[in-house]
Amino acid sequence: MEVVIVPDAAAGGELIAEAIAALLARKPDALLGVATGSTPLPIYHALAARVKDGTLDVGGLRVCQLDEYAGLPAGHPESYRSVIAREVLEPLGLGLERFLGPDGTSADVPAACAAYEAALAGAGGVDLQILGIGTDGHIGFNEPCSSLASRTRIKTLTPQTREDNARFFASPDEVPHHVITQGIGTILEAGHLVLLATGAGKADAVQATVEGPLSALVPASALQLHPHATVVVDEAAAARLRLADYFRATYAAKPAWQGL
Ligand code: GLP
User: Fold this and answer.
1) For site-directed labelling of 135, which of 59, 125, 167, 212 has its Cα 20 to 30 A away?
2) Which atom of ligand 1 is nearest to the CA of 39?
3) Residues 244 and 206 sit within 8 Å (Cβ to Cβ)
């Protein structure tokens, strides 16, 4: 696992946008897995700025979804499909034909999950998956004690995650209890995992992810199993890392050609 400590969220966004640009230079029709929440927004802003100034061509880019609320009505502004359309597809000028996501409105949730697994496999798999992290160490919506081998399925949110996500809804009661999420086993099949974490509220979860034991109690610790996982953190989120100085020195000495 590579850990990169950046000065702030904007620098993290730029760095990850650069890695995505390098991926697109190698593979113009790459499948990019996108996460929601506030943390990845600087990545999407940095990508959109590059598209706008003509330095990035996303003509072949495909985008897929990490997770979704179950049971929100189609077109609900806080469904993750709507959020991705608003924050990623529209700013990058991508149509819905470039997008893959689970159907959170389906009455047959297991069928919707199986269909999404099949769609990801049919698309050739995710090349680079952007991840955020919950305060309890979840990735996607894989809450603590999710199977490390799990596939796309329904999950129940913890009270903490519902509270964390209440800011997006008119009232806390409106946050759904149930979600569909790529499983940890599904996520681990992506070619490159890039987790961005910013702010002091993520410092404990980051420390447990990077330095703690591999444990279903901290779902993001599954990144330790992946041969190409990058964790990008700002100073506040890095505050509890015991090996912070080692990570800084390693990155500072890294040859530029290696990229992330
Ligand atoms: C939600 C999403 C996660 C995201 C997390 C953290 O639970 N399902 O993918 O990582 O929120 O969000 P934020 O980046 O806003 O802290």
Assistant:
1) 125
2) 14
3) no
pLDDT at residue 256 tops 90:
no
Atom of ligand 1 nearest to the CA of 157: 7
Asked whether the predicted pLDDT for residue 53 surpasses 90, the reply is: yes
Q: How far is the CA of 134 from the centre of ligand 1 (A)?
A: 5
* Pocket-forming residues, ligand 1, beta carbon under 6 Å: 35-39, 66-67, 132-134, 140-141, 161, 165
Q: Please list the active-site residues.
A: 67, 136, 138, 143
For residue 40, the ligand 1 atom closest to its alpha carbon is 14
Q: What is the pTM of this model?
A: 0.97
Which residue's alpha carbon is at the smallest distance from atom 10 of ligand 1?
Answer: 132
pLDDT tens-digit map of 224-250: 999 999 999 999 999 999 999 999 999
Closest C-alpha residue for ligand 1 atom 5: 134
